[in-house]
Amino acid sequence: MPHADAPAYPVGLRLAGKRVVVIGGGQVAQRRLPALVSAGADVVLVSPSATASVEAMVTAGELRWERRKYRPGDLADAWYALVASTDPAANAAASAEAEERRVWCVRSDDADAATAWTPATGRSDGVTVAVLTGHDPRRSAAVRDAVVAGLRDGTLGAPHHRARAAGVALVGGGPGDPDLITVRGRRLLAEADVVVADRLGPRDLLDELGPHVEVIDAAKIPYGRAMAQEAINAALVEHAKAGKAVVRLKGGDPYVFGRGMEEAEALAREGIPVTVVPGISSAISVPAAAGVPVTHRGVAHEFTVVSGHVAPDDPRSLVDWAALAKLRGTLVLLMAVERIGSIAAALVAEGRPADTPVAVVQEGTTAAQRRVDATLGDVGRRVAEEGVRPPAVIVIGDVVAVGGAVADAARAAGTSGPGTSLGTGTDTGTVPGTGPGGVARG
Ligand SMILES: C[S@@+](CC[C@H](N)C(=O)[O-])C[C@H]1O[C@@H](n2cnc3c(N)ncnc32)[C@H](O)[C@@H]1O
């Protein structure tokens, strides 16, 4: 005897090219359609109206839309149906037609009348997780979330049984807060045998690695300073050739002043495949963590990221400081703490106003984050007075003066802190335009 409480039989439908009919173009359709489209289904939507997102999928040619109410016969030749309109009579009629035609049918308004249920699904690295709990969709979603999160961050052990792709992953680890690495970066880290890590980046994540993982501190590889990059390249090559899964964990993004391409080229010369995982660069994220947007409507229409590792008058400099001084937008300087005095003087000499606001953000996104405010005219002195040390990002431009209201609201709500911070740490500066003493954003 069939009984209503029998568990659903799980199955993976291969819908590529198969006709799927969706009745109703509201929120339910909006949530379900992307997966049907990804599965390659030939989707027909029958509905007098649709949400803007559903309409955008129609415009993009991902599905066909019959802009009308359900009519008997709509489920002819369908392999699968999703009935989710706001009209109960139409839902019941479509569901009855599905039954008659033996088309598996999901109903958003009546799970008991449905012949199929949609599991809570998620994906991570080629694995589809699908969870059914009968009548408790929130529990399904919670179990799905826990499994997917575990797969993504590697806390749920699920080793690949097929041969692992050999080679080295150049992983951008973000600016330092361990939550600001990408999901892919974190997963590769969890699967690594060897991790070659920089001084900058999410070093807290190294504590989470298993005891079998060899962690090599790139800053301590024994060779002279000039040889350091060759030594790092050699270590990557050596471990990759030994068949190890190697992660080169770098601060920020590997290709933003990170010498990532040099490492990729060294590996390519040895025939070792490289995977590059982009990261959140400090150039954007560190100002943001201190409450500075690098662009703002009506204030800055461009931002330029510049290395300050050599002074403007250094013959090795590739930067046209005179041209930069003519720009009105935001300048973001990395590696510039030691030379900010001469850089600021060059910008002022070439025409950038001396009262241009400047924010210096040290150790952004970490618990030690601090922000010092200055102007282009006095930033060299302020950095020295305040003892600012690398790593710091220096933001120059009118965007530095916006965001005060948001910082005030965050402080009132008590939400400032690394990750949600808006000027956390010590603010020892004056925010131009706020009067003597400025706004303490700490
Ligand atoms: C060699 S560059 C690497 C940049 C990195 N690839 C990126 O995309 O952020 C190092 C410079 O990045 C900046 N930097 C990186 N992380 C930082 C952080 N958490 N706080 C402030 N500055 C940071 C500093 O200017 C530092 O001197």
UniProtKB/TrEMBL annotation:
Residues 412-442 are annotated as: Disordered. The keyword Transferase applies. Residues 168-379 form the Tetrapyrrole methylase domain. GO terms for biological process: cobalamin biosynthetic process; methylation; siroheme biosynthetic process. The active site is at D198 (proton acceptor), K220 (proton donor). It catalyses: precorrin-2 + NAD(+) = sirohydrochlorin + NADH + 2 H(+). Pathway: Porphyrin-containing compound metabolism; siroheme biosynthesis; sirohydrochlorin from precorrin-2: step 1/1. Keywords: Cobalamin biosynthesis, Lyase, Methyltransferase, Multifunctional enzyme, NAD, Oxidoreductase, Porphyrin biosynthesis, S-adenosyl-L-methionine, Transferase. Residues 432-442 have a biased composition (Gly residues). This is Putative uroporphyrin-III methyltransferase. It comes from Actinacidiphila reveromycinica.
